[in-house]
Amino acid sequence: MPYVTKLFILVSLCCSLLAGPAHAGETTRKSKSKAETTETQFAVGQKFTGTSAWYGLRAYGRRTASGTTFDSSQLTAAHKTLPFGTLVKVTNKQTKKSVVVQITDRGPAPGYIIDISRQAAIDIGMLRQGSASVALEIVSLPRSYASNAARK
What we know:
- 21% of the residues lie in helices and 32% in strands.
- A six-stranded mixed beta barrel has the order 3-7-4-6-5-8. A two-stranded antiparallel sheet has the order 1-2.
- The model is unreliable at 14-39 (pLDDT under 50).
- The chain is of the alpha+beta class and 152 residues long.
- It is built from three helices and eight strands.
- The protein is globular.
- The chain has helices at residues 3-18, 118-124, 143-151, and strands spanning 29-32, 37-40, 47-55, 76-78, 87-92, 98-105, 114-117, 131-140.
- The chain starts with a helix and ends with a helix.
């Protein structure tokens, strides 16, 4: 596939992610399933479990969905729905090591709950394996999310 085509697809994808209400500081996210419509709200202390992967080498220096420049040496992560700026504690269930990352990007690939930066993967001992079973806990939500939630 030519470079220009790849670039166009990447830019289109980024623009579609930035256009959604999640990037406008919405306090709830509506998602439609086949049977019903649900709202997802997040709270400090909320926990999730799943599989994590890490990313960094190809994405280094590129813009994230939040508009920041990706740096694989920083403690950052990509999540499908958590608001940008959310701090999440990621614990590798096998090594029991934890790290707190900031959500700055959208992702991960299907089958994963979160993508963490290379540095975060090093800190929790999953760099060599590439993925690991993890527990997530929301440590803090961005101010814009909290102030919008208070208005509702």
